[in-house]
């Protein structure tokens, strides 16, 4: 190619003269070289030429190279072409450049080099080999472009993107953008993580919609369409299900992107708020529980505050009497509400609660004394979300305490130890003691702090111990007065032994003792005796054995002796590996108010149990004896006359009184209603079975994977997981567990319910209320036909089905008479609580809650024979479903409950008088 500037000169030369032609060529080449050098020097990119010698010396650099590097040409010529690298230079890139040069092939790299003054800069380098006419490499030419500014921008963008990605991951916030023209969706990595999808192509909007439950699809569509129509942004919280089926809560924020006056794109954020939503719902539920509890408990006030000391809940039945306006207080800060001296006393304790410390003080407010607890509120994660102030008015209790102290001082000056007075006062003490124990048991069902639970458990245990003492004193007074009547009825010794064994197993386990029973297979299934008194004697003996045994165990045996004689006997022995008894101690062991020793440090009772047991054995035609040596344990033996019931052949091992039924079945009861739990528990215990109770299907599935059961009594309708789903999951476990028989418990007797239960994998069906004979038949492989029940209309129904209630009463009395009082107190509490909840729900217009509560009350009432209450609850349930007026039906239900409780109380009174 001939440059334009050389063309006129060429036309002037005479090329016929060789010398002239040579001169002309030299001149042309010189001009061409000057032209090329000028062009190269004017380039903004650095140019470097290196000779193809082994050390690749530099032979030329242009002006731009010198400007970029700060070196003069004479400082560069002759040096190695890679002399600009330094400590930060990527050696892998240098190696690739060297390999390309050695192979005489072009190479492109981005490299960190260093200027003459030591400052680093980024170069985009392109190196190519230069070949002669024979194809030999004679040199290398490189182009160097300073891309430092570009690299810094790229690094800043990468760091910003990394920061945004990290922040989004920590906050669980994803970002998204939808191009409305191309319908192309772009997601951040966290969007895929929240959806539990692999990173790739995001789903389309229509597909993404199905990650939400169908009932909220319209909310998503409305927000989307409103934004497209009006440009309105959205910010909504929605339930959500991931690709792996995990239930979550998300917060979706979206806004339009305008271009040329039109919405071209939508973009927004997407945040997983499951934890905060659960905390919010839990806090709301907690506040509601505290509010209801405070309103129900007289003399109790509750203040709940957040981490900023702002009151979120003020509740209590006595607020108005104390002049506290809950509506005005809620939302206020404690620092603004408290005046001196309250501020200096309470605020430090509130701050301690926010640090995780609990406090308890007696606090005087407006002349009244409050037992005040200030404690932290912890979330499931362990994070403290606020604090709680619970004040219980103990002014009257303090007065009572003072009065009791004065009474004690007066009593110490007089002697009132006469037997008649002791017997009378024992009767009077039983009722309040039963109330104390029942109240403690009910309190233990609430959400409590460990300290509260420990205190209430102490109250319950102490109350039961005191009640046992009162009962013993009463029994002793009856025995000494000759007023004890011994029953003569069919008695299942096996069932009694197993029931007592199960009753004390937990206590034995807590002491690390082994407790077992061995029963003679020749023992008749039923004998004539007094089952209640036999159970009482055996409980006294086992209780003593465990109390005085620290290592080893306790063995209960039941056998037949003297079968070949005219007077066969049943011998029940309780052997222990405890401290043993000397001959001198045995001489007065069965005398009232005597102990084995008088060491006050030993755990012991009043010394009545053995005396009562010995006298009961005598009244039943037998005797109680003791054998043993100090340090070798003791054996207490009850010997009673053996009188079989009609023809009752011996039961072989593994069989019990119910034909075909196992001696002791391991029964799991899945039932959410507390009254129903207690009723079924008592009925099963009356049949001599081992019983475990859970409150819902989730717990049932977990329990069968932890231990084996023979039978599960499964309530069909329960919270969290119903009985049908629980059955399906248990059957799905297959051979991983010992598959039990599963029997449905339900208030429904409809054919479709039965079919659903059987389809789920259940084996049987029991309709509430559960009758004792029906339960025995269901658990037996050879059931005895029961009489068909009749169904009356609402008008002809009695208030109470005394057949159902009588069976329950009999089962309770057979175990322990005091359980009747506790159970009736529990029924009264449960009915009143459900009435209060119904009243609140009706006032709020929450018909769905009314429907649920009425259904639950209906099941409870049927289980205990409260027919009128069950029908009234059923009518209220149907009215709520049909959105009818509820107040008249609620009044009828309230009247039915009042009448039922009255009749129950009269029945209990008659029962006490009979005893």
Structure description:
This protein has 915 residues and is α+β, with helices and mostly antiparallel strands. The chain folds into 7 domains: 43-146, Beta-Lactamase (2-Layer Sandwich), CATH 3.30.450; 153-272, PAS domain (Beta-Lactamase); 277-399, 2-Layer Sandwich (Beta-Lactamase), CATH 3.30.450; 415-479, Signal transduction histidine kinase, dimerisation/phosphotransfer (DHp) domain (Helix Hairpins); 489-641, Heat Shock Protein 90; 666-761, 3-Layer(aba) Sandwich (Rossmann fold), CATH 3.40.50.2300; 802-914, Four Helix Bundle (Hemerythrin (Met), subunit A) (Up-down Bundle). It contains 30 helices and 27 strands. Strands 2-1-5-4-3 form a 5-stranded antiparallel β-sheet, sandwiched between helices. Strands 7-6-10-9-8 form a 5-stranded antiparallel β-sheet, sandwiched between helices. A 5-stranded antiparallel β-sheet has the order 12-11-15-14-13, sandwiched between helices. Helix 21 packs antiparallel against helix 27 (818-844). The longest helix has 32 residues, at 450-481. It is elongated. The N and C termini lie far apart (132 Å).
């Amino acid at each position: 190619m001939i440059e334009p500037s050389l063309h006129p000169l060429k036309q002037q030369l005479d090329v016929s003269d060789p010398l002239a032609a040579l001169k002309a060529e030299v001149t042309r080449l010189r001009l061409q070289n000057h032209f090329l050098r000028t062009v190269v020097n004017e380039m903004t990119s650095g140019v470097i030429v290196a000779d193809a010698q082994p050390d690749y010396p530099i032979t030329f650099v242009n002006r731009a190279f010198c400007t970029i590097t700060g070196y003069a040409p004479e400082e560069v010529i002759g040096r190695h072409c890679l002399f600009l690298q330094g400590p930060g230079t990527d050696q892998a890139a240098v190696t690739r450049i060297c390999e390309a040069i050695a192979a005489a092939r072009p190479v492109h790299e981005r490299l960190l080099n260093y200027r003459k003054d030591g400052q680093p800069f980024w170069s985009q380098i392109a190196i190519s080999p230069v070949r002669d006419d024979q194809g030999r490499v004679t040199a290398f030419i490189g182009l160097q472009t300073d891309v430092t500014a570009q690299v810094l921008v790229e690094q800043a963008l990468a760091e910003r993107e990394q920061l945004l990605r990290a922040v989004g991951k920590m906050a669980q916030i994803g970002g998204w953008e939808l191009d409305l023209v191309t319908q192309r969706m772009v997601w951040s990595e966290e969007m895929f993580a929240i959806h539990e999808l692999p990173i790739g192509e995001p789903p389309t909007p229509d597909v993404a919609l199905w990650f939400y439950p169908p009932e909220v699809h319209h909310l998503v569509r409305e927000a989307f369409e409103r934004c497209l129509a009006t440009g309105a942004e959205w910010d909504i919280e929605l339930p959500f299900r991931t690709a792996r089926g995990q239930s979550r809560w998300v917060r979706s924020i979206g806004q339009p992107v305008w271009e040329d006056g039109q919405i071209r794109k939508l973009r927004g954020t997407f945040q997983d708020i499951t934890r905060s939503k659960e905390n919010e719902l839990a806090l709301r539920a907690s506040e509601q529980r505290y509010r209801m509890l405070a309103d129900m408990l007289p003399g109790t006030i509750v203040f709940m505050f957040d981490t900023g000391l702002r009151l979120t809940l003020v509740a209590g039945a006595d607020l108005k009497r104390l002049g506290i306006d809950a509506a005005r207080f809620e939302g206020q800060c404690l620092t603004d509400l408290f005046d001196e001296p309250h501020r200096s006393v309470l605020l430090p304790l509130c701050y301690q609660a926010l640090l995780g410390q609990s406090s308890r003080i007696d606090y005087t407010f407006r002349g009244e004394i409050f037992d005040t607890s200030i404690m932290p509120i912890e979330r499931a994660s362990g994070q403290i979300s606020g604090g709680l102030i619970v004040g219980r008015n103990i002014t009257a209790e303090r007065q009572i305490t003072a009065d009791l102290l004065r009474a004690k001082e007066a009593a110490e000056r007089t002697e009132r130890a006469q037997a008649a007075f002791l017997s009378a006062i024992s009767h009077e003490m039983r009722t309040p003691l039963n109330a104390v124990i029942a109240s403690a048991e009910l309190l233990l069902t609430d959400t409590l702090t460990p300290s509260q639970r420990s205190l209430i458990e102490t109250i319950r245990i102490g109350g039961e111990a005191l009640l046992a003492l009162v009962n013993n004193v009463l029994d002793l007074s009856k025995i000494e007065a000759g007023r004890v009547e011994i029953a003569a009825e069919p008695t299942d010794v096996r069932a009694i032994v197993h029931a007592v064994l199960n009753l004390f197993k937990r206590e034995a386990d807590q002491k690390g003792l082994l407790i077992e029973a061995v029963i003679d297979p020749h023992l008749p299934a039923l004998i004539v005796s007094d089952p209640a008194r036999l159970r009482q004697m055996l409980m006294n003996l086992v209780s003593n054995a465990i109390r005085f045994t620290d290592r080893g165990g306790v063995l209960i045996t039941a056998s037949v002796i003297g079968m070949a004689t005219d007077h066969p006997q049943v011998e029940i022995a309780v052997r222990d590996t405890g401290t043993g008894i000397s001959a001198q101690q045995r001489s007065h062991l069965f005398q009232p108010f005597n102990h084995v020793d008088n060491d006050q440090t030993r755990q012991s009772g009043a010394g009545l149990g053995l005396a009562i047991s010995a006298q009961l054995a005598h009244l039943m035609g037998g005797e109680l004896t003791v054998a043993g040596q100090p340090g070798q344990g003791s054996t207490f033996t009850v010997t009673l006359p053996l009188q079989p019931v009609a023809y009752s052949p011996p039961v072989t091992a593994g069989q019990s009184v119910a034909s075909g039924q196992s001696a002791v079945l391991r029964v799991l009861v899945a039932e959410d209603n507390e009254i129903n739990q207690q009723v079924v528990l008592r009925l099963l215990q009356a049949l001599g079975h081992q019983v475990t109770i859970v409150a819902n299907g989730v717990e049932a599935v977990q329990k069968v994977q932890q231990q084996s059961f023979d039978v599960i009594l499964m309530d069909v309708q329960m919270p969290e997981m119903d009985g049908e789903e629980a059955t399906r999951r248990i059957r799905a476990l297959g051979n991983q567990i010992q598959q039990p028989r599963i029997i449905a418990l339900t208030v429904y007797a409809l054919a479709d319910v039965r079919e659903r239960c059987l389809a789920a994998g259940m084996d049987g069906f029991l309709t509430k209320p559960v009758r004792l004979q029906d339960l025995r038949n269901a658990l037996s492989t050879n059931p005895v036909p029961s009489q068909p029940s009749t169904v009356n209309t609402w008008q002809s129904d009695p208030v109470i089905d005394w057949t159902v209630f009588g069976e329950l009463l009999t089962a309770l009395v057979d175990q322990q008479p005091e359980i009747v009082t506790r159970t009736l107190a529990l029924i009264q509490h449960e009915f009143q609580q459900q009435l209060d909840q119904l009243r609140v729900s009706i006032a709020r217009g929450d018909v769905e809650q009314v429907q649920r509560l009425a259904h639950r009350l209906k099941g409870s009432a049927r289980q205990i024979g409260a027919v009128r209450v069950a029908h009234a609850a059923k009518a209220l349930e149907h009215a709520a479903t049909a959105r009818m007026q509820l107040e008249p039906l609620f009044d009828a239900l309230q009247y039915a409950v009042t009448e039922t409780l009255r009749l129950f109380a009269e029945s209990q009174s008659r029962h006490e008088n009979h005893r």
